[in-house]
Amino acid sequence: MIFKLIITGFLIFLNLNIGLSQDNKENKTKEYITWGLMQMIPSPTLFQDTDGKNARVQFGFKWQIIPVNIAFKTNKYISNTQFFMINPVRRFTGSIEAFVQPEITTAEYKYSNIKSFGVSAGSRIIFPLVEYGENLCGSLGMKYTFRKSFNEVNKGYTGLEAGIYLFGGMIGLQYTQNFNSRTNYNVSLYIKYF
Fold first, then answer.
1. Is the pTM of this model over 0.70?
2. Among 5-9, 135-139, 144-148, 152-156, whose mean pLDDT is lowest?
3. Separation CA 28–CA 87 (nearest Å)
4. Taking the CA atoms of the chain, what radius of gyration do you get in angstroms?
């Protein structure tokens, strides 16, 4: 199902006719539609599933949603705050942001007794490492994951997140250390189109 949505979105993206003579309103509409479709591309993730005696790693997906970003190095004539559609330069040269990550595993948590769907919310700080962050940047953050057990009891947990990103912050690797005994960690291939 997810694969079909990605292919459909990609085909629509390819068929958009963006011409120079179109008026600005049409271009903005196409820009937001294209951006929205690209947000549907998930980040592949490995999740740990354990009960203390048995453990396994299972495959899943996360989606990267950034509702607000506050940049540290902006021109004094423009706002340092952006919502949803974030300019990558403003992000990777140094910023702080709030994020939401819906996540799902391809199978139920066999040992942890928690459901496969969850939502994480938190904040992270992004800092440049090489060439003002354009070639390499990093992040540190904290989040809370909302997840339920099979019998509908809330089994949420906090976690620390660290990441490293390439190509203007569009591709990277994120590691999350969770503070619980059911799923101690997850590792994601971060994919985010701005």
1. yes
2. 5-9
3. 15
4. 18
Measure CA of the first residue to CA of the last residue in the chain; give whole Å.
24
- Calpha distance 53→140 (Å, rounded): 30
The answer on pLDDT for 47 being more than 70 is: yes
173 residue type, one letter: L
Residue 28's pLDDT is 76
Cα 176 from Cα 162, distance rounded (Å): 6
Q: Would you identify the CATH topology of the domain 42-191?
A: Porin (2.40.160)
Domain range summary for the chain, segments of one domain joined by +: 1-41, 42-191
**One-letter identity of residue 184:** N
Percent helix / strand / coil, the chain, rounded to 5:
20, 50, 30
Longest CA span, the chain: 64
**Contact predicate 170/149, CB 8 Å:** no
Other beta carbons less than 10 A from residue 168's beta carbon: 15
Residue 29 makes CB contacts below 8 A (sequence gap 6+) with none
In angstroms, the CA 115 to CA 54 distance is 17
- Predicted confidence at residue 111, as pLDDT, reads 80
39, 186 contact by CB (below 8 A): no
Higher per-residue pLDDT: 127 or 75: 127
**pLDDT tens-digit map of 170-193:** 789 999 998 887 788 889 998 877
Residue 172 corresponds to which tokens in the numbers above? 């990277």
